[in-house]
Design brief:
about 375 residues, alpha+beta, Immunoglobulin-like, 2 domains, 5 helices
Length: about 375
């Protein structure tokens, strides 16, 4: 009965069988993280503590942690740009997927960018299904990956499941067993007492900022919830990282809070504009992907917030599945396209000569906005 006195129809009775004592079940995963051209981490969870192994590329890798519930097994010795079938096993119970290593320079590929999505909504489920069928090689999130508490409490797997299971693995489990998962932090990731970072190990050392290469793209992931002013550890990392990768064809940045968002007069991050945008411009970043605003928006190529040939394109892909921040009468001249009435993800295709961003509508799996960025004579 709800607050208005409406009574729902009774659920049909069902009969179930509980798991026998000591029986092993894989209750979460497998899923892929920290994927490079030759290494990866394969993770899965069992209902009780067990040993675990990963069979891949002619090798069998034993979980170095021994008998545990959360298995996170590093694998190595893989060939770049290849797809490798794998099987995890615990207590004789198998599960599997396919692991695509990072593309080599010169190989074209696509990836999915999605933010603000883990809400257990129809839109999230549609996005997950579409990403799974989109031929993308990995998922780069844009923060606020699981609502409302980033998974706290995590399950004991014998009596309790968490937001991760209901709001992420139910929808994205079939996808992340074959596509690498690279998360960016939003504020929600800080609500779970570290549970998110335990479940989803990030590259790097601090569960906050990191970078990686895939094909001709260098991707820098920043954390807008941590200090990034000039001289901070994060700023220095970003500056040094971008400086070291000026020879790469493309430089892409993922950060949750957007430099440019016309949702309202306050939806753009003034700090990102003032501190990071000058750095992005100086280091020839080509594309910046953000979330936080629950809608989709793409700017013209911008320099100092003004449309300019050879400028940076900024994309907000924050309509991943947790409601909408509707656009109203407030507008900005930097906006090339915006949409706030349906869920979406951004499919980014990278070739040696172009970056193409397609915004894909969740309920129809159709492209509703597209832009292509080509190399300019000012790029290095």
């Amino acid at each position: 009965m709800d607050s208005a006195g409406n009574v729902s129809t009774a659920t049909t009775a069902r009969v179930g069988t509980t798991t026998a004592s000591g029986a092993v079940k894989i209750v979460r995963g497998p899923y892929l993280s920290n994927v490079t051209s030759s290494t990866a981490v394969v993770s899965w969870w069992t209902n009780i503590a067990t040993d675990g192994t990963v069979a891949i590329a002619g090798q069998s890798v034993t979980d170095p942690a021994g008998s545990v519930q959360h298995h996170a097994v590093p694998v190595s010795g893989l060939a770049p740009g290849t797809t490798n079938s794998y099987t995890v096993s615990s207590g004789g119970v198998p599960a599997g997927g396919s692991l695509r290593t990072a593309a080599s320079a010169g190989q074209s590929f696509s990836f999915a960018a999605i933010g603000d999505f883990g809400a257990q909504s129809t839109g999230e489920s549609q996005n997950a299904t579409n990403i799974g069928a989109s031929a993308t090689q990995f998922i780069q999130t844009l923060g606020d990956n699981v609502y409302p508490s980033a998974g706290l409490p995590d399950p004991n797997s014998s009596s309790t499941y968490s937001d991760f299971d209901a709001r992420f693995f139910k929808q994205f489990g079939p996808v992340v067993k074959s596509q690498a998962y690279f998360p960016a932090n939003g504020n929600k990731e800080y609500y779970g007492n570290g549970e998110f970072w335990s479940a989803f190990p990030m590259p790097g050392t601090n569960h906050s900022w990191y970078s990686y290469n895939w094909g001709n793209a260098h991707i820098l992931v920043l954390d807008s919830e941590q200090p990034y002013g000039v001289g901070t550890d994060q700023y220095n990392f970003a500056q040094n990282d971008l400086t070291a990768h000026q020879g790469d064809t493309w430089r892409i940045v993922a950060i949750q809070r957007p430099a440019y968002s016309s949702t309202s007069a306050n939806s753009s991050s003034s700090a990102v504009q003032q501190i990071l945008v000058p750095l992005f411009q100086a280091k020839h970043v080509n594309l910046v992907l953000s979330g936080n605003s629950h809608n989709y928006e793409r700017t013209f190529p911008l320099t100092n917030g003004v449309q300019a040939t050879g400028g940076i394109t900024y994309v907000v892909s924050g309509a991943g599945g947790n409601g909408f921040n509707r656009f109203g009468s407030f507008t900005q001249t930097y906006t090339a396209f915006r949409e706030s009435s349906y869920y979406e993800f951004a499919k980014v295709t990278v070739t040696p000569t172009a970056l193409t961003v397609n915004a894909v509508r969740a309920d129809t799996n159709t492209v509703f906005d597209s832009t292509t960025i080509t190399k300019s004579s000012t790029d290095t």
